[in-house]
Specification:
Elements (H helix, E strand, L loop, with lengths): L20 E7 L3 H16 L6 E8 L3 H11 L3 E3 L2 H6 L5 E4 L7 H9 L3 E4 L7 H14 L3 E3 L7 H11 L6 E9 L17 H4 L3 H16 L3 E9 L4 E3 L5 E3 L5 E8 L4 E7 L8 E8 L2 E6 L5 E6 L11 E4 L22 H15 L11 H20 L3 E2 L3
Parallel strand pairs: 1-2, 1-4, 2-3, 4-5, 5-6, 7-12
Antiparallel strand pairs: 7-13, 8-11, 8-17, 9-10, 11-12, 13-14, 14-15, 15-16
Helix pairs in contact: 1-9, 4-5, 5-10, 8-10
Length: about 400
Amino acid sequence: MSEETGFTTMAGARAEGEAPQIGVGMLGYAFMGKAHTNAYKKIPYLMYPPPAIPRLVAISGRNKEAVAEAAKRYGYQRFYTDWRAMIEDEEVQLVDNGGPNNLHAEPSILAAQLGKHILCEKPLARTAEEAKEMWDAVEKAGVKHMVAFNYRFVPAVRLIRNLIDEGRLGRIYHFRAVYLQEWIMPHYGTPKIWRLDKSVAGSGALGDLGAHIIDLAHYLVGGFKSVSGLTTTFIKERQTADGGVGIVDVDDAFAAAIEFENGATGTLECSRFSAGRKNYNCFEINAEKGSVRFNLERMNELEVFWVGEDPKTTEGWHQVLVTEGYHPWWENWWPHGHIIGWEHTFVHEITHLLDAIVNDKEVGPHGATFEDGYRCAVVCDAIVESANSGRRVDIKY
């Protein structure tokens, strides 16, 4: 046992009532690096008793000064400018891959080959082929693997999944979802960043936003049978960092009609050109016994309509405040009505992964595995294929 922490390490014997430590190596220190690190630091005292104590071993990034500052700010023991060296660090047991999309495959595959567990940001890969290589690698290695589809871990979303599993909604007829943002509209003056470069990102709004609602559709409704897609790029040239002009070769927006394997139908729409929409991830499910509606910008709420209620007294949409102690994860938080935020989804998500690692549980069905990430990538590729060909495309996982 460590005298400093009072907890055993993963290599040591786990005593009764003690949580083992898991050494974390973080690839990336910006947006997702901050969000994930915040979760690691909160887990020991909020998800109490925790399945494991995350130990912030190392963080890596290309810029030495920036990654050194991140290590100091976040509390990592050391930093690397070479992600390979970080993954090879013997004290790193869980690799958290928050790098750009073109750095998802190679580091994750190396981590798997070295027997490290992996949390990889979404989209899992730039293409389905790349995602399949990653899935094959983690399956061969026998490590735990999860894609950071954090919206599965919103209490209201988990409540919807529970209602579906309990048969409360009955047969599902429709799923429609939009994910709208505005941050690359002309008035922001956004230059050609990596998210607008196909070689790095793989796609635009499709992989950035669409991956989330495709995964939610998979999680809540099931597999896709076919898609018909349309993609659009509104601004085809943007200023580069050196003052030049670069070609934008990814989509700014897409729309798709979908057919599910279970006979349900649906629509998906994503755009980063939606004025006034900050992070508008909104979906509705219409089913045999009722309908549910969710809006991420009001993530502690859920709207429900139940078929068969008295039209004179109770029929209508009901707004449910998802903050009761019996709602998913709420026993770890505050009294009802005291809302939580976007960052807490990562606390739930990473706790789930740590539990799977320590207690040898399955990551799925509630956590998104690399198989789920691959299935999402198959749909993304099919939407692009449909948009390019003008034809409906059958989904083949």
